[in-house]
Structure formats: structure tokens, C-alpha cells
Design brief:
- About 40% of the residues lie in helices and about 15% in strands.
- It folds into 2 domains: about 100 residues, Phosphorylase Kinase, domain 1 (2-Layer Sandwich); about 210 residues, Aminoglycoside phosphotransferase (APH), C-terminal lobe (Aminoglycoside 3'-phosphotransferase, Chain: A, domain 2).
- Bound molecules: adenosine-5'-triphosphate and L-homoserine (HSE).
Length: about 325
């Protein structure tokens, strides 16, 4: 469960006294997620989410994330909205952590991805990209290609215990992916903009097979738009048995291109972008797998699911392998 920081009743009461959102009715930790501590909060004026920002979030960057969420909402993307306290502050401190209250979004995320989810997902992703165009401040991707070698290095003592030969396999993969990355060594750069960078099924809420909202913008950054597509190919288009589902990929792209057509250069880069996306999630999962204490109240995600994906992408030479 992802509650890294406990919040006492007294601390919560004091915290809520700063807000004009009614009095507390119910409060519980949310078991899902691995990054931040999330709590569901019910007050006499409605439901809210309280987030305490943990390990991977830099507090100095929180205004960028909260500003992006406010901007996207103004542009028609349904996402959590920071709630200001009586002084107009959205970013506060609770139990020694940076903290914010955001609005609660109705809907449920798909526990089993089906083809019907993929087209609306693609459309929502492209709408996010379009809406982000007018958000000027930039945030570099802290988990982009430059971060992967140091991340792998920080796993050096544990990778081969997770799977024999893993460290060397990932080093070889990195030596292939990073020099081939768009914008590196003669490879053309791609259109850039604000990307979500973590749009997994548990961050997309549906109601009646339509997307009702997007959550968890704390990896959002300014990067290649097509990298976000590649992240979704990884997160949505593989079956539980590890097989790639080309129908899901086609549906997702169909939905995406209803709003924004991919350029030729973006399509051509899809294999390397998909390799990089698999590498990024494999490495953060591997890091958490190795470094999370056994008694921590969080269930780390299996890095090896992403090794299967990485191998698939490395064997996929052209965009045709994705049915695109
Ligand atoms: N604004 C919201 N409205 C409704 N439910 C929410 C909201 N924000 C979070 N949740 C619930 O809390 C869960 C965990 O939230 P979130 O995905 O933001 O956590 P995280 O630790 O950052 O997770 P991740 O592992 O996806 O990075 C979600 O799956 C959802 O059930
Ligand atoms: N969505 C990520 C967790 C948050 O970074 C994963 O599944 O590995």
C-alpha cells in the first residue's frame, strides 16, 4: 500500500482548519500507487484527495505540476484540481511532507484493458498534448535517456539477483538505445510538448467506456510527444501473458490521430521510443524492487514484466511491427 507517511487525527484537523471545505466526515489511506502517499478525504462539502509528496517528487517542481493541472482543466482536460486554502495557498506542508488537496474525480480505472478502452485513451492522450501546447513553462524529463545509465548503476548490486545476467543485458540494451535516441548523433529530434509520461491504466478513469478523467501528473514533463505514445504502447498494449496486442495498438493510434496526426519522423522513431519507454519503467521498478525495505507499506511492481516488453521492442525493427 502506498502510504509512506502517517497523518495523525490532530495534524489532519489542524491542516483542514486552514481550508474552507467543511468539516471532516471520513479519512482513509489509499492502498494503490507506489509513488506518493494518497488519502481519500470526505468532508461535509464533498470528496477530495490528499496527497503527501514522497521520494521522486522534487518539492520545488510542485508549482509546475499543479499549474499544468490547472491549465489543462481550463483547456478542457478533466484532471484533479488543487484546492486553495483560505489564504489562496495550494501547496502546503503536512507531517513534514509537501502536501496538497485536490478534487476527487469520479470513474474507475480499467483493471483489465479491453480494445474498447484503447481508442478513447488515444484520443485523451492527444487532447492532453493539444491542451499542453499553451502551457509555456518547461520541465525537463528527469527520467529521460540521460538518467538511465545512473539508475542502472544504482541497481548494480542487485540486478543479477533479480535475474541472472540482467545487469549486462540492460547495459547492452542501453548502449543500443541511447545513441539511437531522437536528437542524438544525427537522428532528427521530434515535436516536443507537455507529456504525462506515466499514463498507465491506473491513471485513466472511465465511465461508460469514455474517459472521465486523467490523474497523477507528477512525472509530467516537456519531452517528445511521441514518447508519451510509446509509454502507452507499453502500458496498455501488452497482455498479461506478455504478448503484444496489435489490435489495442491500432485502436490507440486511431484515437490519437483523430486529434493529432503523428508526423512521419515520429512514426519512424516508434521502435526506439518504445524501447526507451520499456527501459525507463524497467529501471524505476528495478530500483524500487531492490531498495524497498521488506516491511514497507508498499508493494513494488515487478520489473521483469518490462524486461519482456524491452526484448519485444528490441526485436521489432520497424514501425510495421506495431501495426502502425
Ligand atoms: N483525484 C483523484 N480522484 C479519485 N481517485 C484518485 C484521485 N487521485 C488518486 N486517486 C486514487 O488513488 C490511487 C493512487 O493514486 P496515484 O496513481 O496518483 O498514486 P501514485 O502513488 O502516484 O501512483 P503511481 O504508482 O500510479 O505513480 C488511484 O489509483 C486512485 O484510485
Ligand atoms: N506507472 C509506474 C509506477 C509509477 O512510476 C509503473 O507501473 O512502473
Amino acid at each position: 500500500m502506498a502510504v509512506y507517511t502517517d497523518v495523525s487525527d490532530e495534524a489532519l484537523r489542524d491542516f483542514l482548519a486552514d481550508f474552507a471545505i467543511g468539516s471532516l466526515v471520513a479519512f482513509r489511506g489509499i492502498a494503490e500507487g507506489v509513488e506518493n502517499s494518497n488519502f481519500q478525504l470526505r468532508t461535509t462539502s464533498g470528496d477530495f484527495i490528499l496527497t503527501l509528496y514522497e521520494k521522486r517528487v522534487n518539492a520545488l517542481e510542485l508549482p509546475w505540476f499543479l499549474g499544468l493541472m490547472q491549465h489543462l482543466a481550463r483547456e478542457g482536460v478533466t484532471c484533479p484540481q488543487p484546492v486553495a486554502d483560505k489564504q489562496g495557498q495550494t501547496l502546503k506542508t503536512l507531517a513534514g511532507r509537501p502536501a496538497a488537496i485536490t478534487t476527487f474525480l469520479p470513474g474507475v480505472w480499467p483493471r483489465t484493458v479491453r480494445s474498447e478502452h484503447c481508442r478513447p485513451l488515444g484520443r485523451a492522450l492527444a487532447q492532453l498534448h493539444a491542451a499542453g501546447r499553451s502551457y509555456a513553462p518547461e520541465r525537463p524529463n528527469a527520467l529521460g535517456p540521460g538518467a538511465w545509465a545512473p539508475l542502472l548503476q544504482s541497481c548494480a548490486n542487485g540486478a543479477d539477483k533479480v535475474q541472472a545476467g540482467l545487469q549486462a543485458e540492460l547495459e547492452q540494451a542501453l548502449a543500443r538505445i541511447v545513441p539511437a535516441w531522437p536528437g542524438q548523433g544525427g537522428h532528427p529530434p521530434l515535436p516536443r510538448g507537455q507529456i504525462h509520461a506515466d499514463l498507465f491504466p491506473d491513471n485513466v478513469f472511465f465511465l461508460n467506456n469514455t474517459v472521465s478523467g486523467l490523474i497523477d501528473f507528477y512525472f509530467a514533463c516537456t519531452d517528445y510527444l511521441a514518447f508519451d505514445v510509446a509509454i502507452c504502447l507499453n502500458a496498455w498494449c501488452f497482455q498479461p501473458d506478455g504478448a503484444f496486442n496489435v489490435t489495442f495498438a491500432r485502436q490507440m493510434l486511431l484515437g490519437y490521430e483523430e486529434v493529432r496526426v503523428l508526423e512521419e519522423v515520429e512514426r519512424n522513431a516508434m521502435p526506439v521510443l518504445a524501447q526507451g519507454a520499456a527501459m525507463r519503467f524497467l529501471l524505476t521498478r528495478l530500483y524500487d524492487w531492490i531498495h524497498t525495505p521488506a516491511d514497507a507499506l508498499v508493494t513494488p511492481k515487478n520489473p521483469l514484466d518490462y524486461l519482456k516488453r524491452l526484448r519485444f521492442h528490441l526485436a521489432t525493427q520497424s514501425v510495421g511491427g506495431y501495426g502502425l
